[in-house]
Automatic annotation (TrEMBL):
Keyword set includes Chloroplast: yes
Keywords, sorted A to Z: Chloroplast, Plastid
Protein's name according to its UniProt entry: 3-oxoacyl-[acyl-carrier-protein] reductase
Plastid keyword on record: yes
Gene Ontology CC: chloroplast
Localization of this protein: Plastid, Chloroplast
Amino acid sequence: MGIYGMVTGKAGKSGFGSASTAEDVTQSIDANHLTAIVTGGTSGIGLEAARVLGMRGAHVIIAARNTKAANESKEMILKMNPNARIDYIQLDLSSIKSVRSFVHQFLALNLPLNILINNAGVMFCPFQLTEDGIESQFATNHIGKISFSIFLIEKLY
Ligand SMILES: NC(=O)c1ccc[n+]([C@@H]2O[C@H](COP(=O)([O-])OP(=O)(O)OC[C@H]3O[C@@H](n4cnc5c(N)ncnc54)[C@H](OP(=O)(O)O)[C@@H]3O)[C@@H](O)[C@H]2O)c1
């Protein structure tokens, strides 16, 4: 979309602007051969990304810390599109142990990884240290996200 589209709401050179939806930008894309991981796929932008990628045929792995929310999201997506391929692997980005466990489980599935949507994040949370001794917002938004991407990077190329 570019900054022009974000600020003005008008479509930029890509033809998309801030009013464009996930369905708009993926229209006519056949994602049947693709595997996508969406972190934080249980609410907001992540849930919508998971829903629309599933609708376009991608095999979507929802990476989320809350199993109940993940199952509810999966159910909701399947209700709208019974053919969607949606799976869930637990991931708490604020824990290096959990990041490693996710990657171990994902690699064991022997799937390609074509799309990684590093969406999960927190903002303005009260000061707290994680089990790794890192401030929790920094751990989630930076250390966890970067480790996650580094552990998975060879699957992306
Ligand atoms: N919406 C905006 O206007 C806006 C603006 C700027 C940036 N962003 C960023 O865009 C992303 C999505 O925004 P949103 O509005 O859709 O946010 P949201 O509805 O709050 O969703 C955030 C997702 O991240 C997950 N998450 C949080 N901490 C996690 C952890 N430690 N491990 C795994 N998952 C974790 C949440 O899971 P739980 O349900 O378990 O908490 C939730 O599914 C966020 O990173 C946000 O900071 C959003």
